[in-house]
């Protein structure tokens, strides 16, 4: 079994400082757009091609291929992306990795209590517990924070632009 690095990062979607309040349907629409237009959300991705799509508004599966930008290695990666009932999106990677984007509630009433959590299971060449693994985990945690906060910002921008 390959070595894996597991981590998660959570951020409030509508903190008091937010310029506008995103609703759950807007957030879900943003995650659905992210599946099909990854390059709008992930700067390391230059193109995203949908190979098949058996989705409805809440559930379904998309097979896609992403092309990473030259500065990110330029590789292509194929993913199976599963949307689950307006709650989460799972990105299954060919190497066995898994990234989940989850919309959760804090118990606070209304859309102000929404949170975005990304969980990551990365396949790693480093042995768990080693200095190399710790360094890689720290780097990935910083990337996770940027991914969550960047996705929320992108969804907010797309809503403002009338694209969601």
UniProtKB/TrEMBL annotation:
InterPro entries: AtaL (IPR015075), START-like_dom_sf (IPR023393). It holds the Pfam family AtaL. Residues 1-20 are annotated as: Disordered. This is DUF1857-domain-containing protein.
